[in-house]
Amino acid sequence: MSSTLAGPLTDHCFTSVAHSGTPKGKSITIAGVPTYLSTPQASAASGVETVILYFSDVFGPFYINAQLVQDYYASQGFTVVGIDYFFGDPVHLHLDKPGFDRPTWRTKSVEQAKASVPKWVDGVKEMFGTNVNYCAVGFCFGAPYVFQVAATDLLSCAAVAHPTSLTEELLRASKVPLLFSCAETDSAFPAPFRRHVEDILVEKKATYYFQIFSGVSHGFGTRGDPEVETERWAKEECQRAMVGWFKRFTSSK
Description:
There is one protein chain. With 253 residues, this protein is α/β, with parallel strands linked by helices. The protein is 38% helix and 23% strand. It has 8 helices and 10 strands.
């Protein structure tokens, strides 16, 4: 039986501070799944070189925070596609509703993601072809889907921040360099789980990178408070590291 390396969704997964900014991407459909597309300004002239598959947290790829993160990747030269496995029903539409049945919403969303991710990934490959690099990034709810794709031969590398629902089976199946961006306080991915992941990666002789931020909690990579310096810096450093990771494994190809 596969052991648990990151636990299920917790209360931290459902809290956020909305960030401010103007999204630059657009909504498209890939394989019947709503998708946020953000492209670098130079892509039309030079062609697509690297595509980032973005697997969001429960707030979805069209949440302002997620849009701004995807736009940041695009500003660094990547074409970004963010799958909406919630099909227009992200969690923040419900959080203020009395009697919201969070477990039922979660179960529905997991089933939707399981059904839509494989065909969406195939659709992305059909859209961009085989002569480009692919990387994947996932936050919270999105992390296990990163590992599913990392078990194939598609990706050059992958990155996750504050993962949930990660099993040893998923981790051991990964074929690509992995970045983990971690919070000091994280009930879904506490220090003992994090250290077990590292032990497995060492055993596998995998290429990996851990960054661990003090003073922040689960969700900091996309949903921290930008008015709190520690949270703002951790979020920005997390994203800078991910961009560096993507560039490291795609620049020479």
